[in-house]
């Protein structure tokens, strides 16, 4: 027996990698180290069904206790990997324990971007972990008055939707850009989402940078804005984006550039070290810059790619990225890369909550699709793109039922 595979980070990517290794017949030792005390859990429900108590902690576990025992995956919870020594192929943990590896998989994910040097008065929150979600639930119960959401990305907007519709609280969404979801959605979808939030009674402040907080006795009173009156708030939730957890790799001399750089087999510039999920940056054929994909699909797919390589069956990663968001009673699903969009078509009855936005590149081929309550079309497009099909704009130009199977 060798020293086996050591996986750092026990969330979507890390757990999936351990599971995929066993599925691929890998019989060596697998150790999975995670900083979080909780049994690994799904993050997406934290801003949706978990925050309003529609699902429990048990419901959101990624795998049961028995899975780790049955699959002989040694799960070490509540421990941080502090350093990597690539010469001795060892990792030192926060309790002083030193672990050997033949293959090291970094699945360290990302963390919320904080406000100025981490300045966090009482009742100012971020949402990444189960513990964060518990704190937010506690704060919502213990306060009344307005909830301010700073940052109109997906996590902030999902929380805004849940807090407004499930808790009935006054919500103000504060966004520095001219539109919501500016990094991850087309202007068409941004506008649609903005209308839903406003119709539900939330106040939306676009093009409005936050400057700081007003506090009393260390607890937030208001969000201070640039050139506008302060927004009084009992609870503030920051959704300012995320930062990749790359320091463990960069301190070991592994190449990083806003993410741990990997090739199409998820290998870093050290052939024994892999990086997967939110923390990994890589090249894709569809766009001319490297990407980090911040979604469950990418965490799972890269986990399987790294596992296959380690198990001796390397298969390159050719992503067709997709993700979903649930807010305001709508299921929003996006597939593909929006970067190359030169024209777009609106399909279906989007104003009444069911339709799609299709986006085309300069050669009039579909590069991305955003669907609203339309999982069937989302799936058809995902399958077609994954099969390498080109979907030309003409197919989408009629108003009738779409047929993408032929
Ligand atoms: C509230 C919320 C809602 C979301 N909703 C959606 C959605 O609807 N759809 C979607 O596709 N995606 C969604 N996402 C994004 C999705 O959850 C992430 O893309 C996914 O979690 C990435 O998985 P990961 O394993 O790469 O990283 P992470 O989930 O960030 O996990 C990394 C783990 O590594 C641990 N770790 C880091 N450093 C160390 C260390 N040195 N030692 C030990 N452990 C370490 C961390 O504690 C963490 O548990 C959501 C995210 C959040 C926070």
Automatic annotation (TrEMBL):
Its cofactor is FAD. It comes from the Bacteria. Residues 322-397 form the Reductase C-terminal domain. Keywords: FAD, Flavoprotein, Oxidoreductase. It holds the Pfam family Pyr_redox_2. Residues 6-303 form the FAD/NAD(P)-binding domain. PANTHER family: APOPTOSIS-INDUCING FACTOR 1, RIESKE DOMAIN-CONTAINING PROTEIN-RELATED. This is FAD-dependent oxidoreductase. It comes from Komagataeibacter oboediens.
